[in-house]
UniProtKB/TrEMBL annotation:
Gene3D superfamilies: 3.40.1190.20. This is Carbohydrate kinase. One of its GO terms (molecular function) is ATP binding. The keyword Transferase applies. The lineage of its organism: Bacteria, Bacillati, Bacillota, Bacilli, Bacillales. Belongs to the carbohydrate kinase PfkB family.
Length: 320
């Protein structure tokens, strides 16, 4: 039995790291991406986790597998492809600090995950099955993702969903929207950013947009993250805004993933059952997730920036 099993993309981001003595750009390899970052947060907080996905049978793939194991994530569901390389992405910093991503994924190993390679038993042994949208940008990984979702549903495994847009990875924006919405049919707990809410619903108003998704997809909990401003939530027993923490932010990479990992950790403490949760308890859980994510923005990267439970509790208890 695992607390959380996640399926999705696993790749290496190369982020700018200054110049060499020759004046050429240097890049630092940052292993992970959303589903792995969520699991690494949970594993750091002592939850049992396993990852399902595909990397190349190459040095980058080995590095990714090792990274997961080093962070306490089970890799029995990780497949090493002989034919296709590990997916890579290069990050470029634009003027003003915005980042752009250049993906080396045509195809990359993560999107050639086949449905028969999905360890269905692993999915069905989980208390929560977690997925995102980037494993649904292409076939055969989309069918593999849907197979895992159907397996989770068949055993009433709770499903958490964190869609990500990344326009460059989709055939078109309408394809992205349609597929992201398709994923919502399976979700119990949904996390979106405010931009993703607007993209999927056309609505900027948090109350209106979250109500629309909540009702249309019969969701149990909707979390809309708002960067430094915290999070808006909607839940059967209430809705509201939980303010973020003021910290010395240096890098927001993966803040949403640390937030969701910390939220799922709190949810597991309530026996992963939303029926047992009161609105005030949910607010406390979100506040804790805000604390974890805020601390994560005070260090560089995603996985290396995950705080310890003690550090998070200290910040959280200062407010609570
Ligand atoms: P990503 O795609 O980078 O993982 P996201 O867009 O899903 O992130 P954000 O809304 O940027 O997520 O941030 C997630 C959470 O992280 C917020 O709800 C908040 O708790 C925390 N957070 C983000 N930025 C800051 C910040 N500058 N200061 C404090 N907390 C922050």
């Amino acid at each position: 039995m695992y607390d959380v099993v996640a399926l999705g993309e696993l790749l290496i981001d190369f982020t700018p790291a200054g110049k060499s003595a020759n004046g050429n750009d240097l890049f630092e390899s940052n292993p992970g991406r959303a589903p792995a970052n969520v699991l690494a947060t949970l594993a750091k907080f002592h939850a049992t986790t396993a990852f399902i996905g595909k990397v190349g049978k190459d040095q980058f793939g080995s590095f990714l597998g090792e990274t997961l194991r080093k962070n306490g994530i089970d890799t029995q569901g990780l497949i090493y492809s002989k034919g296709v390389n590990t997916t890579l992405a290069f990050v470029h910093l634009k003027e003003g600090g915005d980042r752009s991503f250049q993906f080396y994924r045509s195809p990359g190993a993560d999107i050639i995950l086949q449905e028969q390679e999905v360890d269905v038993e692993l999915v069905q042994q989980a208390k929560i099955f977690h997925f995102g949208s980037l494993s649904m940008t292409h076939e055969p990984a989309k069918t593999a993702t849907l197979k895992a979702l159907q397996a989770a549903k068949a055993k009433s495994v709770l499903i958490s969903y964190d869609p990500n847009l990344r326009p460059a990875l989709w055939e078109s924006l309408s394809h992205a929207k349609e597929t992201i919405l398709e994923g919502m049919q399976y979700a119990d707990i949904l996390k979106l950013s405010d931009e993703e809410l607007e993209f999927t619903t056309g609505m900027r108003d948090l109350e209106e947009g979250s109500r629309f998704l909540f009702e249309k997809f019969d969701l149990k909990i909707v979390l809309i993250t708002l960067g430094a401003k915290g999070c808006f939530y909607r839940f059967g027993k209430g809705k509201g805004h939980i303010a973020g923490f003021q910290v010395d932010t240096i890098d927001t990479t993966g803040a949403g993933d640390l937030f969701f990992g910390a939220f799922l950790h709190q949810f597991l403490q309530k026996d992963a059952s939303w029926e047992a949760i009161q609105a005030e308890e949910l607010e406390t859980m979100i506040l804790f997730a805000n604390a974890v994510a805020a601390l994560g923005t005070t260090k560089k990267g995603a996985i290396p920036a995950i705080p310890s439970l003690d550090e998070a509790r200290q910040l959280f208890e200062g407010r609570n």
